[in-house]
Design a protein that fits this description.
The complex is a heterodimer of chains A (about 325) and B (about 280). Chain A has about 325 residues and is of the alpha+beta class. Chain A has eight helices and 18 strands. Chain A has a six-stranded mixed beta sheet, sandwiched between helices. In chain A, strands 13-17-14-15-16 form a five-stranded antiparallel beta sheet, with no helix packed on it. In chain A, strands 2-1-4-5 form a four-stranded antiparallel beta sheet, covered by helices on one side. In chain A, a hairpin with a 2-residue loop joins β4 and β5. The two termini of chain A are about 40 Å apart. Chain B has a single domain, classed as MetI-like fold (Orthogonal Bundle), CATH 1.10.3720. The chains are: A alpha+beta (about 325), B mainly alpha (about 280).
């Protein structure tokens, strides 16, 4: 029974239904992501678990205990906020100590030290939030939430405020940190790359509902809906069938048998560093993209080409 | 561009020089003279007026002024904080409520102080009601004492405490309160450990805005304190009117100003602002 269960959660803001019947189970120790565009209800879902909002209907259970009706300060759940919400009048160490002090924990000093150590902030313990870099703020927020040893850690787009290089680095650190502490992470994000690379399981949300739940591979390779397919990456749509650009090949000659083939004219060819991106228009008015490795040929605008792929790579998703 | 800037500053400079700094200079000069036989100034230059400031007689009045202004400041902060907190969370009604706070400024301070006299005097509203209900048999001495003056000061300067506290609380990130709750702080703990420390600048500003005019107040102690509750403002006024000792009045008001400036400097320095 070590898990978070959401059972039929609904939430309206005035007349607008923000969360429209969400049910999911997150096993203990899992890195679980709620992935979706802004306004899909993922943040509201997180706020209901933290206790900042109450669901209109539905149950929230954590390790067998019902959280509904519990005040945020009573819930064994902590949050890393999108803006970090560090207390500006407290140093890194004092921020981390905040929750322990409210509990009157006699071991505060040692736990703060260990938490700062965990996020490699020991040298910055006395730094005030205003003097911290984005990464330091994020680590402080993480340490502050983790030091209370919550049964569940909620992370509300914690990487979105960082610059891209730091974001990639923190992504790796976050994953390692979760593995080390073994606490269940519920990670909210609109960045599909982040969700794919970090998560054990992902739930893709759209308009207040869960469109699909599964492992990153399942969701990317066998999307249940067109929305999921498009949200997780680029798709070439040919009628009711979609195929990923990186699984699409391109050549001047017609390929061997057994492949699905479309003929077209190159409309753009771009070098992206790690690959080439070639776009071609077919006679039927479809615009197809092939992402190909170096050495698989050079293509020029206006050239006639064949685009092809293995039919087993197709995603059958009727509109 | 530079010349244009000078041109734009000219009216304010001229106004300040002529109408503020010049009279100040006159006061400084007066404070170093002796009082004339029929009032006004005359006689030789002297520092006698400043020596007189240390007379225990005046020390008592100065001390009393500090205590009363301090009491009024504490009273204003205690009343203003919950009010400002309430207004800052009132959503669309904020503007209405702020206007209500400032509503008293639409009428004369003198008239409002007289209204307090009608409320507090022996035959006033409070005493009449209490007497009528039989709660008391003698009218309570509500008027013409230090308490009446402090109440009057609190009433008069409460808006000056509400406004800076409101603007401070308004800017307070609500996510910080959620973070506090998330980390296990009960609402009163969040108030004590997050909201209060973060409203310290607003508290200081509010305190200064109430304390300084309270310290120099003369209308409120004059009307609500009667002759019994003299503050330094009344003393200064007396020197210029009944006592006809302009040099000593000048020295007194300069001393008051020096004290206020020292206080301001000490308080605002902590906000890391350039004060002077």
């Amino acid at each position: 029974m070590s898990e978070l269960i959401l059972d039929g959660i609904y939430k309206d803001f005035s007349t607008h239904r923000v969360v429209d019947g969400i049910s999911l189970t997150i096993p203990q120790g899992c890195f679980y992501s709620l992935l979706g565009p802004s306004g899909c209800g993922k943040t509201t879902t997180l706020r209901m678990i933290a206790g900042f909002e109450e669901p209109d209907r539905g149950l929230i259970k954590l390790n067998g205990r019902t959280l509904n009706g519990m005040r945020p300060y009573e819930r064994p759940v902590t949050t890393v906020f999108q803006s970090y919400a560090l207390f500006p009048h407290l140093s890194a160490a004092e921020n981390v100590a905040f929750g322990l002090r409210r509990r009157g924990d006699p071991d505060t000093a040692r736990k703060v030290r260990e938490a700062l150590d965990l996020v490699q902030l020991t040298a910055k313990a006395d730094r005030m939030p205003a003097k911290m870099s984005g990464g330091e703020r994020q680590r402080t927020a993480l340490a502050r939430a983790l030091v209370l040893e919550p049964e569940l850690l909620l992370l509300d787009e914690p990487l979105s405020a960082l610059d891209p290089a730091l974001r990639k680095l923190m992504r790796v650190e976050l994953k390692e940190l979760q593995a080390r502490v073994g606490i269940t992470f519920l990670f909210i994000t609109h960045d599909q790359e982040e969700a794919l690379s970090l998560s054990d399981r992902i739930a893709v949300m759209h308009k207040g509902r869960i469109e699909q739940m599964g492992s990153p591979q399942e969701i990317y390779l066998t999307p249940a809906t067109r929305f999921v397919a498009s949200f997780l990456g680029a798709v070439n749509w040919v009628g009711s069938v979609g195929v990923r650009p990186e699984l699409t090949r391109i050549s001047k000659e017609r390929p061997e048998g057994g492949m699905r083939v479309k003929e077209g004219t190159v409309s753009s060819a771009m070098f992206l560093g790690d690959c080439f991106r070639v776009e071609a228009q077919t006679g039927e008015g479809e615009s197809l993209v092939a992402q190909i490795a170096h050495g698989l040929g050079q293509f020029e605008r206006g050239e006639r080409v064949h685009l092809w792929w293995d039919p087993s790579d197709e995603m059958a998703l009727p509109e | 561009m530079r010349r244009l800037r000078a041109l734009f500053l000219l009216p304010a400079w001229a106004f300040t020089l002529l109408l503020f700094l010049a009279p100040m200079g006159i006061i400084v000069v007066y404070s170093l003279r002796t009082k004339g036989v029929y009032g006004g100034v005359g006689g030789p230059w002297t520092i006698e007026n400043y020596v007189r400031l240390f007379d225990p007689l005046y020390g008592v009045i100065l001390l009393r002024s500090f205590v009363m202004a301090g009491a009024a400041t504490v009273g204003c902060l205690v009343l203003a904080f919950p009010l400002a907190l309430y207004i800052s969370r009132s959503g669309t009604r904020k503007t209405l409520l702020l206007n209500l706070v400032m509503l008293p400024f639409w009428t004369s301070f003198l008239v409002r102080t007289y209204a307090w006299m009608f409320l507090l005097r022996d035959t006033g509203l409070i005493n009449s009601v209490l007497l009528g209900m039989g709660v008391i048999s003698e009218p309570l001495p509500l008027l013409y004492n230090d308490g009446a003056v402090v109440v009057g000061l609190i009433y008069g300067y409460l808006p000056f405490a509400v406004l800076p506290l409101y603007s401070n609380l308004e800017r307070l990130d609500r996510a910080l309160l959620e973070a506090a709750a998330d980390l296990g702080a009960k609402p009163w703990e969040a108030m004590l450990h997050v909201v209060l420390p973060l409203t310290a600048p607003g508290m200081r500003a509010a305190g200064v805005l109430v304390f300084i005019p309270s310290l120099g107040a003369y209308l409120t102690p004059d009307l609500l304190g009667g002759g019994k509750s003299m503050m330094i403002g009344n003393l200064v006024q007396n020197q210029f009117t009944s006592a006809r000792d302009w040099p000593f009045g000048s020295a007194l008001s300069l001393a008051l100003m020096a004290v206020v400036m020292l206080l301001l400097w000490a308080l605002l320095r902590r906000d890391g602002e350039e004060v002077f």
